[in-house]
Predict the structure.
Amino acid sequence: MRRAMCVIAVLTVGLLPATGWANGEAGVLALVHGLLIDGTGAEPVEDGVVIIRDRRIVAVGSASEIEIPEDAEVLDVGGGAILPGFINAHVHDGYSESNLRAWARGGVTTVRDLGTQFRWTSSSVSVFADRDRLNADVRNARLVAAGPLVTTVGGYGGYAVTSPEDARDKVNGLIDGGANIIKVAIEDNLQGRRWPMLTLGEIRAIVETAHTRDIRVAAHVSRSVHVEMALDASVDDVNHMAVDSVSGGLIARMVDRGMAWVPTLELWEGVSRRYGLSWDRIAAGNLLRFVEAGGIVALGTDYAGYTTPFDLGMPITEIRLMSDAGMTPMQLIEAATRNAAIVCGLGDDVGTLEPGKIADVIVVDGNPLDDLQALGSVLVVVRDGVVIRDDR
Ligand SMILES: [Zn+2]
């Protein structure tokens, strides 16, 4: 109990560093009596236990295998499901404390912002300082930030490059400034108009520059031809499910290369409803064929990426749409945890309940493998080992 009070006191002043307990004091927390769904796709474990020491998970398993340390604060989750914190791998308006609070309270402990919506200049890198300030408060969802959407002059996006050399300089500038991810636009036909596109040589220069510095590249796409270019340039993940029918050959190439897809079905549902299009149905069909072929899917919604409404907090609409498309509850949970962590560049740190991972953990009321609606009933949220929500 003493520790719980300490947490409240620290959170009230909002100064807790993301690196863990104030003064480096190691606290021990034991979540007990939960159904463990660890994000790896493994079978769930009944009467599961998660032990957290300082900010890391140190043990996970069934109550019969795991010893609860004597100094642990025990948090009985009463049969709820224990999962990794969910991750929304495609949002905008991420540099907002109120948004980050809402995501975290809703069980989304990390978000990836894939593009500020203003015209980027060299001084815009100050947004990365905003990110660091926001990330220092564990009540906020962790923000992974791309900065701008890199494009060509007059193209779709907010930061134009004019040649492969210019692309290298500007991508290096973004990474020097603190970008976690590089986002590139591959788009020639959207929002009712034609757009000039980056050349393949420019996209390759962007990707090579980022990869040299161990930074991943995410691409905006909307059609198969854009995905082909992304593959040719070794982009790591493509965002928005294609709204033309994707060929089996293209899916096979993507699976072979391990290229991830972030479908953003919530975006396509909103756009399709507004304009009477069938893009949502085409996207759902492509998604199912990609999943059945063994493709890696990461959950992302495009929150605030368009004028249609989006869920803030648990992305329950996206989850419903992925389920309606034919993904199983387990595939969906993997997409929202392990796979989303990978596309954020955080695959070694978060996304699964495994020893050594940062303790981003949620508890929901019910078994989401039986009823996905349970994901909308978040009881407990732990970020960086700190209980930031407890509504048991
Ligand atoms: Zn977007």
